[in-house]
Amino acid sequence: MNKLRYGVAYYDEYMPYDRLQEDIKMMLAAGINTVRIAESTWSTHEPQNGVFDFTSVDRVLDAMHEAGIDVIVGTPTYAVPAWMIKQHPDILATTSRGAGRYGARQIMDITHPAYLFYAERMIRKLMERVHKHPAVIGYQTDNETKHYDTAGDNVQLQFVKYMRNKFGSLEVINQKFGLTYWSNRINSWEEFPSVVGTINGSLGAEFAKFQRTLVNEFLAWQVQIVNEYKLPGQFVTQNFDYDWRGHSFGVQTSVDHFEAAKPFDIAGVDIYHPSQSKLTGIEISFGGDISRSLKQSNYLVLETQAQAFPDWTPYPGQLRLLAFSHVASGANMVAYWHWHSIHNSFETYWKGLLSHDFQPNPVYNEAKTVGADFTKLSHKLVNLRKQNKVAILVSNTALSAIEWFKLPDGKLYNDVFRWIYDELYKLNVEVDFITPDFEQLSHYELVIVPALYSVEDEALERLNEFTEHGGHVVYTFKSGFTNEDVQVRTVVQPGIISKACGISYNMFIAPDEVAKIQSDVLLWSSEDAAITSWMELITPTTAKVLASYDHPEWNNYAAVTRNQYGAGTATYIGCMSSPAALRSILADTLQHIGLWQEEQKLTFPIITKKGFNDEGKLIRYYFNYSGEEQAFVYPHKAGTQLLTDQSVSEGQQITLSPWGFVIIEQ
Amino acid sequence: MNKLRYGVAYYDEYMPYDRLQEDIKMMLAAGINTVRIAESTWSTHEPQNGVFDFTSVDRVLDAMHEAGIDVIVGTPTYAVPAWMIKQHPDILATTSRGAGRYGARQIMDITHPAYLFYAERMIRKLMERVHKHPAVIGYQTDNETKHYDTAGDNVQLQFVKYMRNKFGSLEVINQKFGLTYWSNRINSWEEFPSVVGTINGSLGAEFAKFQRTLVNEFLAWQVQIVNEYKLPGQFVTQNFDYDWRGHSFGVQTSVDHFEAAKPFDIAGVDIYHPSQSKLTGIEISFGGDISRSLKQSNYLVLETQAQAFPDWTPYPGQLRLLAFSHVASGANMVAYWHWHSIHNSFETYWKGLLSHDFQPNPVYNEAKTVGADFTKLSHKLVNLRKQNKVAILVSNTALSAIEWFKLPDGKLYNDVFRWIYDELYKLNVEVDFITPDFEQLSHYELVIVPALYSVEDEALERLNEFTEHGGHVVYTFKSGFTNEDVQVRTVVQPGIISKACGISYNMFIAPDEVAKIQSDVLLWSSEDAAITSWMELITPTTAKVLASYDHPEWNNYAAVTRNQYGAGTATYIGCMSSPAALRSILADTLQHIGLWQEEQKLTFPIITKKGFNDEGKLIRYYFNYSGEEQAFVYPHKAGTQLLTDQSVSEGQQITLSPWGFVIIEQ
Amino acid sequence: MNKLRYGVAYYDEYMPYDRLQEDIKMMLAAGINTVRIAESTWSTHEPQNGVFDFTSVDRVLDAMHEAGIDVIVGTPTYAVPAWMIKQHPDILATTSRGAGRYGARQIMDITHPAYLFYAERMIRKLMERVHKHPAVIGYQTDNETKHYDTAGDNVQLQFVKYMRNKFGSLEVINQKFGLTYWSNRINSWEEFPSVVGTINGSLGAEFAKFQRTLVNEFLAWQVQIVNEYKLPGQFVTQNFDYDWRGHSFGVQTSVDHFEAAKPFDIAGVDIYHPSQSKLTGIEISFGGDISRSLKQSNYLVLETQAQAFPDWTPYPGQLRLLAFSHVASGANMVAYWHWHSIHNSFETYWKGLLSHDFQPNPVYNEAKTVGADFTKLSHKLVNLRKQNKVAILVSNTALSAIEWFKLPDGKLYNDVFRWIYDELYKLNVEVDFITPDFEQLSHYELVIVPALYSVEDEALERLNEFTEHGGHVVYTFKSGFTNEDVQVRTVVQPGIISKACGISYNMFIAPDEVAKIQSDVLLWSSEDAAITSWMELITPTTAKVLASYDHPEWNNYAAVTRNQYGAGTATYIGCMSSPAALRSILADTLQHIGLWQEEQKLTFPIITKKGFNDEGKLIRYYFNYSGEEQAFVYPHKAGTQLLTDQSVSEGQQITLSPWGFVIIEQ
């Protein structure tokens, strides 16, 4: 990508009156150089079966081109028209909750041939129409695609075939999945019961894995069609989104992003997060780190919040902070969902850059400063490259398995993931993301492995080998407990990694109110000593104990250990500590392995990010994620503050205004 | 009505043994002069399809007549017999929760022709039987009629026709309802999807509006049949009830009471409320004010609680207080549901005046004193007429719209309504209720408009005109935001009323923990300064700021404003304040516009109500809604305490016993 | 039974690899002398319709026999194979929640002829195979059998016939059940509506009663089949379980244990309970007392927890304490569910004696000491006989009725039951359990009757007679309120027992925050004076007031009374007091009637149990249910501490280690 893009989603079709020229004028004033269109409006573009109308697409493309604004065209396949469902009601996904109802988006069975027929026809018609238009720089296939829990009879049939292909025989499945339990054995293929009622976690997790393959196949199929039309210089992307807990929270449950991203030219993503006094930047950071890791390259933020909800409307200064935070993580585009606020229907209170009155407002006015600075600094900031020494290993397989076997207090995979990520973020440790099948572990010095509950032997052996050859690994509790079929390993836990970790355990406890950890080595307040959710009663074999339990009954057991294994170390965290104690454990690990740098001496709310630009220069960002002024001493070689063109020298004190930031080119 | 009626619901059919003469003896001893019968017992009166048996009706009518007790006969249509559902299972209403189940009352589709056929036959048979009986003074059609969420295919078809009649074309509907969003456009009538799955708030709110018309039509149809039999002097009423949150809480969601009341001769109502230490009288007051406003006349309390639930059983004195509170609001009848406590089924713990043992008990004994005083004072207290200067404008349309677009903390229309009403009540401001289409605004000096979120332009223009000509209006946040189709107005907010209010806003926030309001003009404690639920960031144009936000980020914006507009004023409350702060705002408004009277100098728990009786004399009630003795100085012209026949002079101190009251004829 | 049995459930079928000989070696080391097999593995034993494979049963029986371990064989009927449901989907129970789904166990309609056909064939095949095997000592039919809420059309038909058989005519039903209410009358048999939608508590409670008869019939049918094969010396048992609130909580809702137990030779039971710092022993005690009362004999604990959940894993010492607590209540067997921890499916975290690694662990090691002591002391401890003077009268009928008519704060029958039982337990009062139809009341000196809300006249009259003849009764609130049809008695409450209790009431209240009880006779702290859930406003006729209400409005009423009636006394507790106040009331009652013994001078956490062994010697257990050392003075005749063979003399101080205990033979 040759410039930094500042964008909005634009729905001419949703406008209460013709605003196109007025909107473009306001966009240009705000530095908007890219719009995303068309992905939600199938019923406008095909009002009746086989009747097509791309008037609004045409006129927006023409007008944008005339204004010099580039356009990303989305295929409108994620929201099906009423006529289609009236004609083929079974296009609605049947889920474990029963038959679907028409109304919302993302309610169809993405494997249904009738849906695929209509979708393909629509995609081809749209592509034929737009692909040669000079405004078009790329395409988004579908939007936030997931499997929508599709689990009807037809999906069940596909699953049975998937199982036969994968495992060969029922006897293998019965054995690996433990179906003998509670008389669940399947002894002939035609009696394979619908999975929606299963109580077997292995089967349930495998079904989730299968459902994710449906997303991969669907997206690859769309990309293949779009690629037939794509011109040189145009790209195809997808708008991935994250596990949703009222905002982007963690690893996506329904999609294996790493696998699904393969056919795309560039990764796109939407990131939404708490704001106002709850703004930390963490979601921007982890979402960006994952997105960047998908194609090991820069990515597009296709959607993020402008005004959004009444509890997200940014404080003055926050919109600027957010935009540059995305760029600092490696985004080449920051686009808002959406330009204007919608006057009807469902997302009336998910406000855009403009309010319902279309007038300039404080947030729009702040966007104008972002646009101006993006334009000015585009050549310095675009295509930021990272060289991270730390990676986090994440796994959809482990995630699904933990949905079946939650921690006693209900915590899930992403709670453990965020517990880890948040403290790395606060320590200013930048990370890449890898998956269990990633083979070049030696690219990193430290690999952090949260709750890798279900995983193939090979991946664990690879981690052991990495450690033995001088790599460092931090494991949390639950890692390695079951194999890829969610079958608990029959050996002493933590199984395959026991030797690298130098520990064993066979009992685990739900911590009660008095459960704490104590350490002779690490420091935390007595308040921060409390542990929650899980505690494994660890016995070191060769490991050194970093922390042990402080409990009337369990104080003979280790809680956190570190083991020298070959040339590397394996640190094992056997319980869910407080964030502060975790930070202490992580800091100790970084120091122990020589990764404690200047960045780590700064602490949240000061966040720093860095990378190399197209000129090969090191760009450093310093963000203030608080409403109070912050200051720090700049410890690196002299450079230039890009926003102000002021020079900065080593040892100089730099002040960050509330929700403010500086960008230094070294 | 020529006398004050004291009544009970009486179900001879529910009695475990023949008690009729004994019950009548006890009724007479308690001064009961009216009973309500028959509305729940269809399966007794028509035990099999076409087989009728009115024995119990006949014997009760005869016995009551002999005892001099009048009877209101209810049509038994709100609870359908088992035989009917076995023969026509689709009479059960299909709702968004699926098919119905037989068992409860109020489960039928009130538009189903088979149901209507049976209901009409039953009504006619009953009316033929009873209308000439000298005991019968009137009729109640059905009971607490609502639409029961009926939404099956047949109802959907009616809705589609309603939409075509109302809007003419799908293009108009697509545009007004914003159906383009998420591909929801309907491009041919036959593909109009079932509304139960819709995510479109405009469509959802319109369906709710349509469902309310079904209630209007059903009740008008019943009244028309009954009117064919009604003799001169007899009346037809309906037992309206209110939004239910474990007790009567606010404006009814499922019925437009103002519209539904039109065919009736007199409004009837049931009012249930917390009791014991939680008794405030608010529900009696607002329920009475609404009921009185329906026909702008006196009304019947067809049901209220005697002993009722274990947490409602009245403290000594409360039953008396309650009965006279109803009368003070304009009720001409106070009737208990129900005479005795039921020995089986569902409402065993919703106790009547008698316990299950049919013996005199403390509550029955207290009722005897009520009955005696009703008899003694009937000519003084019946037909109380009010001349209120303040009206509250309520709207089912706004209510439904807010069901779709709740406040961020989940609050609904009735929460805002009660927030307003409760403080007016505590300030002893008596009010009438009006709806947006009410044209004689000049009957009032002050109109209070809570959360009029969805409303036609005309209604707002009428309010502007009212203000301009010297009327005063208090608006709360959210008023005027969307039009009658729940389409957000595209102009600067608060839209049409902006000019009268002299303000604008385009941002709104979910208040966080530190959000407060401050004022140089109004007073409240720092604790009472906290705001919740909603805050609009208001910029005054011509308005004076009464209160502004006290918040690290939003303190440049106004929270409460007042604007002189023509000869009147418009006060705008942009956030949900504490009750105390609201009371301060309302008190300031009353003072500002000259409505601060002697009544307002009394404060809750002393509540005063007034009105003129048939003799044209002013009757004043003073209630003590507390368990502690209260005293006040009587500030009006001399009069007579009606309960004791003692005279009272201006300036005399009057003591109210715990849960006690006085009635003064001036 | 000629010895104390120490057992485990053993599923060779669930093993990830062949472990049989290794497992048996470890069992023998732990003193395991009995295993329970086969009850969950139908799909293994009949992999296809009519194809049988008992290989795993054969090999386990042979190996166990060789090792000298006895085997209880379970019929595998509580978990149906996939092939059966694919062929006959309607075997899945239809419930009020709709059609069933395959997956879990206990999901079938136990009245379905196809299911019964397959079940009978399986039982006979299995019995033919095993009944002559020398390892087999007995059989368990099915497992934790309940009715699984089966309520489909076929069950409804059976219910209608049950109703006709029981009541004769619809007129009787309409009258007794109050079906006139809300037009629920049933006027012809063919229109009898499905009960799943009913709002009639009498009908709903009767349906629950009917559903319990289905369990009785199903179990009796299984026993009858098994009995055809059973050899002399073999027994048939059932694994009863209790109301489940995350652990065994109270009287089972879905089964009338007393009735269901009749065809069995010996009662079996599973008992699960909180552990670690929440361990009290109460569930072991009440579960044991009920189980022992079923056949008025010793019982088998067929399942209890070894490691189980992460919050149940026993502290060191607790496993021993638990095992002997069961024996002290009269258990002749203590068996763990289960031997090993399961590696897949649903109960992976319900751990067995072994962890997933099959290695010795602290809990297994503790089991070895239990096994050794069981072996050593078997002849002293087996067949413990109790001679209790106190009985608790429990009732499924009352339980079901209260499900329909919950206490205002949602409390149910078992909350009242546990409120009573827990304080008796803490007072070291050992009890038997009886039901309302129990006729030999004079076997006891004191009968305690919690919330006997629905009951036949005869049972109450029997209690009156018992009282009159010198028995003592303690009733709680709600007792006697309705008859067996859940029809409230029409007489003054508490109805039939009024004369024995010497009280009356007709009002009852949901206590508010200030509701308390006070007493001149009994002592409790002001904090313990608070009452919750329910308060009846009692007027004594002949009773003495033990406590009255302390409330601004209700302090004229009695709360707890005692009445001399003939030669006995009836104590009535009209409200739900604090546990401490209840303990005071119960203690006073025990003292008053001469049942205050040495045992009652000890208080929780010291718990004592006693009984006579096969030699006629008195065995006393003293348990310490706490993590702190406890001491007491032994007040009885000299004896021997069985675990240590030390002698103990009267007046000697005995120290109990944390979670420790002593057993003394007197």
TrEMBL record, chains A, B, C:
Assigned keywords, A-Z: Glycosidase, Hydrolase, Metal-binding, Zinc
Enzyme Commission numbers on file: 3.2.1.23
Record-annotated Glycoside hydrolase family 42 N-terminal domain positions: 10-376
Catalytic reactions on record: Hydrolysis of terminal non-reducing beta-D-galactose residues in beta-D-galactosides
InterPro entries referenced in this protein's UniProt entry, alphabetically: Beta_galactosidase_Trimer, Class_I_gatase-like, GH, Glyco_hydro_42, Glyco_hydro_42_N
Domain Beta-galactosidase trimerisation: 389-593
Family, as annotated: Belongs to the glycosyl hydrolase 42 family.
PANTHER family: BETA-GALACTOSIDASE GANA (PTHR36447), BETA-GALACTOSIDASE YESZ (PTHR36447:SF2)
Name of the molecule in the record: Beta-galactosidase
Biological source species: Paenibacillus turicensis
